C-alpha cells in the first residue's frame, strides 16, 4: 500500500472542523443544519483525542512514548518516535491530519472510516 498524502488544514479550517462536530455517547459525528445539540456534545481537541489513534499536539498530550511502546517500537528522539507511529498507522489504512501554520506541530491520526464520516477529504 502506498502512503497517502496527509490531510492539511489551516488553523481556521481546523477550528471550523472541530466546531462542525458533536459527540453523543461514544459516537463522534457531523452536526447537521437545523438540528439542536446539547452543550455537552461540543467537540474540542480534548474530545477528539478520545477518538484518535495517535496525536502530536500542543494542546493535548498524546503520550508519544506510550503510543510508541504500544506499537512495540523504540526511538532515540521524539521526531523518530512520531515518524514510526505515523508509519505504523498509515500502513494500517489510517489518515494523517496536519494543521499547518502553528508554532508547534498539530498532527492527528484518525482511522479512515472516522475521517470519512467526519467529512475530511480522504482519497482512495
UniProtKB/TrEMBL annotation:
This is Uncharacterized protein. It comes from Deinococcus multiflagellatus. The lineage of its organism: Bacteria, Thermotogati, Deinococcota, Deinococci, Deinococcales.
